[in-house]
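can u pls check wat happens w/ zinc ion
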Amino acid sequence: MGLLLSMVLAAASATQPACGPDVLGTSRTLTLKREGAAWGKAQHAALPTLAPGEVVLTFDDGPRPESTPVILKALADQCVQASFFMNGEPLKQHAALARQVRDAGHTVGMHGYRHEHFSPLQPTAQIADLDAIVATYRAALGVEPAAYRFPFLEETPTLMKALAERSITVMSVDAGAEDWLPDQTPQMLADKLLGELAKSGGGVVLLHDVQDQTARAMPFLLEALKAKGYQVVHLRWE
Ligand SMILES: [Zn+2]
């Protein structure tokens, strides 16, 4: 082995000590354009270039100090990169934790300032909520947001138009585990997730980092994905 190659390998292993062949890992990064698009088969087209068996892990409603770091640890242990769609109120309150999520290499998107049902709201109130989460995101993370997931996946024409005008991509979902339902064991969550993924063939997975039961189940869920041969794709925006 050449000296240069040895040095490169040593440097790689120094930065990623846990990323051996036994972990789930992140198979590739999918970089999307900053544009007014909308993806996720629950409501839109499938994410472009995602192949059968590839999954994108997403976590909504955080950050929450009691559970988000538990999720981060589980992801780090398996060298998995994910996306976190954060609400404005917890993002403002726990900005340092949001930066910790970002600094661990994960993608951070928006999920509304408050977790509103937007359909009954006046257009001005909907836009005010968007303005608030965009301003909070900028203040916490120092960059422009690129992605948005609607609370309850409840899209409105007013916000779809406003997001498109701002070149913010809407992310819906392809599969989930209904992890907001109470009293779900890791096995129950894994069964639901694998069942939905079997139907969808992979895709964008919806989970919630505010849920203690999800945080507890993450090592088991990641092992289950690995056992079934799913490949994790890290989603990011240019
Ligand atoms: Zn939500």
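The radius of gyration is 18 Å.
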